[in-house]
Design brief:
alpha/beta; single chain; eight-stranded parallel barrel; 10 helices
Length: 300
């Protein structure tokens, strides 16, 4: 009798805790009603040791960053794209962050919902609960991922924790910089992340944190000297994440001589990646994996 009761107790415990082991994407409700508004998902806790190595450890090579996750094989800025990037062995995972009307940080590139979701209008004019009534309906292999939702920054950071990937976060539109940094800090990745964006956002981040590497995003319609002048407004530990078309050996050498980090975006051939790595760039942003065979992540 005692043995039967013990077995029944174990079964009840497993059933009652099953939701804990669902992925954030799976566990999220698929519909929203006025009577039961959704709340931001709680931060998950993972028994994974976060690396204490410096981000740019000298012995590390082939630092590839998955652009909006592994966006060649799953819709951009979604949990499947982030998970595929982690499983594929990327050094870093890039995403874009927009803050909702009620202060939740979402992984979304566009200001508007129209291109990638069933919604319409500005992301920042919606609450988190309202955004959850829309599905992601655009992107590579979208047919394999029905019912996708826009992920939160917490969900994205949790995926970076699981696979020991460096979060490379581009600020699109946020208002609460303290809450933004607190979210990263609570993930345990405050010393293992890179933040990029426009100079005004970076200046506000630097007022609150002096340690995170900050990188102004550069475009090929401006010479690199334009961005080196901008970045000098920030103290140490900064750099330029630059359109690769405008980067060559001389540019990389000049940036490094100034003590700046040099990253390039977005290139997708192994030959080009090898070329820019030979220039000495600190990392390469790509939509898929150059050199897949030597990038395998065993941190699962």
């Amino acid at each position: 009798m005692r043995k039967k009761l013990w077995i029944l107790t174990v079964l009840l415990f497993i059933i009652s805790t099953a939701d804990t082991f669902l992925s954030p994407q799976t566990a999220r409700p698929q519909s929203v009603t006025a009577e039961t508004p959704l709340q931001p998902p709680p931060e998950a806790t993972f028994s994974v040791e976060i690396s204490s190595e410096p981000i740019f450890a000298d012995y590390q090579t082939d630092r590839f960053v998955a652009h909006r996750g592994l966006s060649d094989h799953a819709p951009e800025n979604t949990m499947p794209a982030f998970e595929l990037a982690g499983k594929s062995g990327f050094w870093g995972i890039e995403t874009d962050i927009i803050e909702t009307l009620d202060g939740v940080f979402m992984c979304m590139h566009d200001d508007e919902l129209d291109r990638t979701t069933t919604g319409t209008g500005d992301v920042l004019s919606y609450t988190y609960s309202e955004l959850m009534s829309f599905d992601v309906d655009y992107g590579n292999d979208i047919e394999d991922y029905p019912g996708l939702k826009i992920p939160t920054m917490i969900e994205y950071l949790n995926m970076c924790v699981i696979y020991n990937c460096v979060p490379v976060i581009e600020i699109k539109k946020i208002n609460d910089y303290e809450a933004f940094l607190k979210t990263i800090e609570e993930s345990g990745l405050i010393n293992r992340c890179i933040i990029s964006g426009g100079i005004e956002d970076l200046l506000k981040i630097r007022e609150l944190n002096t340690d995170i590497p900050l990188m102004v995003v550069g475009y090929s319609n401006k010479p690199y000297t334009f961005y080196t002048e901008l970045i000098q407004q920030l103290p140490e530990n900064s750099g330029i994440l630059y359109d690769y078309h405008s980067v060559d050996q001389a540019v990389v050498d000049e940036l490094h001589s100034m003590g700046l980090i040099a990253g390039v975006w977005t290139l997708d051939s192994g030959e080009e990646a090898a070329q820019y790595m030979s220039y000495g760039v600190d990392f390469v942003v790509t939509n898929h994996i150059p050199g897949l065979n030597h990038m395998i992540n065993e941190n699962e």
